[in-house]
Amino acid sequence: MKILIHIDDVAQWRDALARRLPEVEVVTSEAPAAERRGADYLAVWKPSAELLQEQEHLKGIVNLGAGVDALLNNPGLPKDVPIVKLRDAGMGELIADYTRYGVLHYQRDFDRYLRQEAATEWREITVVDKTEWPVGILGLGAIGQHVAQSLAADGYPVHGWSRSPKSLENVTCHHGEAGLWDLLHQVRTLVLLLPDTPATRHIINTDTLQALPDGASLINPGRGTLIDESALLDALGPGEREGRLRGALLDAFPNEPLATESPLWTHPRIRITPHMAGPTPMDAALDQVVETLQAWEAGESVTTVDPQAGY
Q: Rounded CA gap, 248 and 220, in Å?
């Protein structure tokens, strides 16, 4: 068996996978082209089209992350090759922490205190209790469910939305188009944890932003394509003064790294992080990669990505 790996810390992945599967040939995308060819499997994160096109006899691809949109949209992706994406792999807790930070940033008025600090203004703001701060989670996959239930355990009223009906303890679940609008009207912070699919692209747009209560906030540790950035900037309004939308914490963007000329960088009520909300813990990810490769080699059934659905 020959496995080709492509990811930022590729040498670390190569060594770790070689230790777990000593009988397997493991090469990296940094190897000469002649060594890269002939792989049975790819374990990759955002590979180039050229890297994919080099391979002629692939049996499967393991996507080294939960989001598969970059891989599915890659023009070099071969047809009819099964794709497996990493499951939660510990990302759920990390993204829950990121989301918890974002919710607290607005619920406890840290955004406003930062502006007061810059203006040398000493003024305490009355605390809004968690029970009066409903949070909406768009996307109730494994990570969305974990985040929703973590926030509910913290004491927030949590509303979750998915395309089809779901039931979660201590979470008010909504589904379908009518359920989306019902959720939007009720929440003070909206969290985006949907996959990138044709149905979800620009789901945050002028209409959905207008449906949020005045002074709502937005957190996106999900996919950058979920947001119409022009509509977001319009809802925020210019300058320090709060617009209809109070603020946004953004971790994902349609094109990354975010271009230096993007107006998102300089908007005073947008906080930007470099797609770090849910890095994949290597040990947990390796367990899944090894499990998948061994199942494929044994001819066992493996849950694969549906390219039409986008996840």
A: 8
CA nearest 263: which of 218, 232, 222, 219? Answer: 232
Which DSSP letter does residue 131 get? G
Amino acid letter, residue 84:
V
Active-site annotation, residues: 223, 275
**Residues 6+ away with beta carbon under 8 Å from 230:** none
Q: Is the pLDDT of residue 89 over 70?
A: no
How far apart are alpha carbons 57 and 142 in whole angstroms? 32
- Which tens digits make up the pLDDT trace of 231-245? 999 999 998 888 899
Domain parsing of the chain, residue ranges? 2-89+280-297, 91-272
* Tokens 């992350």, residue located: 65
Asked: is 91-272 a CATH 3.30.780.10 domain? The reply is no
91-272 shares the fold of 2-89+280-297: yes
Please state the pTM of the whole predicted model. 0.87
Q: With cut-offs at 50, 70 and 90, classify the pLDDT of residue 207.
A: very high
Phi and psi angles of residue 55, each rounded to the nearest 5 degrees, phi first: -90, 135
Would you say domain 2-89+280-297 falls under CATH 3.40.30.10?
no
